[in-house]
Design goal:
It is a single chain. By secondary structure, the protein is α/β, with parallel strands linked by helices. The chain has two domains: about 5-105 and about 280-300, NAD(P)-binding Rossmann-like Domain (Rossmann fold, 3-Layer(aba) Sandwich), CATH 3.40.50; about 105-270, Rossmann fold. About 40% of the residues lie in helices and about 15% in strands. The protein is built from twelve helices and twelve strands. The chain has helices at about 15-30, 40-45, 65, 85-90, 105-120, 145-155, 170-175, 185-190, 210, 230-240, 255-260, 280-300; strands at about 5-10, 30-35, 55, 75, 95-100, 135-140, 160-165, 180, 190-195, 220-225, 245-250, 265-270. The chain has a seven-stranded parallel sheet with strand order 8-7-6-9-10-11-12, with helices on both faces. Strands 2-1-3-4-5 form a five-stranded parallel sheet, sandwiched between helices. Helix 3 (about 65) links the parallel strand 3 (about 55) and strand 4 (about 75). Bound molecules: 3-phosphoglyceric acid.
Length: about 300
């Protein structure tokens, strides 16, 4: 029997990405159902009853969603971070969860530079700013996005440092990155700290006052990862105590309005999370997601499973 695939995206993919997914489904003899731009989580719950596979972006796949399914075998998070999918519930329901690592890394990496330039050029207000060339860029975690940021940083003439206990020094050195043994040293050394941490129990609030207060005069934090990896009281304390502290984020903290109200020139927030919001990233991640689903059903391929 033909498999039914639901693409549920409250923040829809670019049209070209949906066209690609649709074509691949058709060729495989799978049925595609779209649930786009929904605002009520109940809409997702109502749509999953008879689907075999689900593709999502940052959409919350809660235990209620899994409870509402009858045939679901696989969820693919078209993207890197899968903190929006309740893995214990998926496993309990016998559902395989995958992500599509690396597929939108370049889009996020390019945005990191957009955010850094915005701060460096003082929001293009005409006030004299600074250049990125010769500055030290510290990558807090060196996964796919970190690798892509480093590649672009070379063109800007930045010196790149990274702290990531899960990545070998040899790999970093081979990429021309200086590995840093202690995270404190990264914050002490760099002019820009770019966060690339996944959201996990261990990373929530990791960028805290203890670390941020070690930053150099005029240094900036760029967050394109997840809002929760920064401790918000620490962030507010940094803004209040350090007139030189700069911060830009694609994943705005809950205290965003407090910051913009008082420290507008020292902060910048995108209107919506848009790191992966490019046609190219949507096409890459969307195609990878549907191919992984077909590979799973047709060949039992579980390469990118994250709930093993
Ligand atoms: C990811 O984890 O891949 C990014 O945060 C992208 O998230 P999005 O699909 O919601 O844009």
């Amino acid at each position: 029997m033909s498999k039914k695939v639901l693409v549920a995206t409250f923040k829809p993919f670019a049209k070209e990405a949906v066209e690609n997914i649709s074509k691949i489904c058709e060729e495989a003899g799978y049925e595609l159902v779209l649930l786009e731009s929904y605002t009520d989580p109940q809409d997702l719950i109502k749509s999953v009853a008879d689907v075999d596979a689900l593709i999502v972006r940052s959409d919350e796949v809660t235990p209620e969603v899994f409870d509402a399914t009858k045939n679901l075998k696989i969820v693919v998070r078209a993207g890197a971070g899968f903190d929006n999918v309740n893995l214990p519930s998926a496993t309990e329901h016998g559902v395989v969860v995958m992500n599509t690592p690396g597929q939108n890394a370049n889009a996020v990496a390019e945005l990191v530079f957009g955010l850094m330039l915005n701060l460096a050029r003082r929001h293009y207000t005409g006030k004299p700013g600074t250049e990125l060339r010769g500055k030290k860029l510290g990558l807090h975690a060196y996964g796919n996005v970190g690798v892509a940021v480093n590649a672009i940083a070379k063109g800007f003439g930045m010196e790149v440092y990274a702290f990531d206990p899960y990545i070998s020094k040899e790999k970093m050195e081979a990429d021309g990155v200086t590995p840093v043994d202690a995270v404190d040293a990264l914050y002490e050394t760099c002019d820009y700290i770019s966060l690339h941490l996944p959201k996990m129990k261990e990373t929530i609030g990791l960028a805290n006052y203890e670390l941020m207060s070690k930053m150099k005069k005029g240094a900036a934090i760029i967050n394109t990862a997840r809002e929760d990896v920064i401790d918000e009281p620490s962030l507010l304390k940094m803004f209040a105590e350090r007139e030189d502290f700069l911060f830009a984020a694609d994943v705005a903290p809950k205290c965003k309005d407090e910051i913009t109200g008082k420290y507008d020139l020292r902060s910048f927030f995108t209107k919506k999370k848009m790191g992966a919001q490019t046609a190219e990233a949507n096409i890459n991640a969307g195609i990878a997601a549907i191919k992984q689903i077909i590979g799973f059903f047709e060949k039992g391929d579980t390469t990118f499973q994250v709930n093993k």
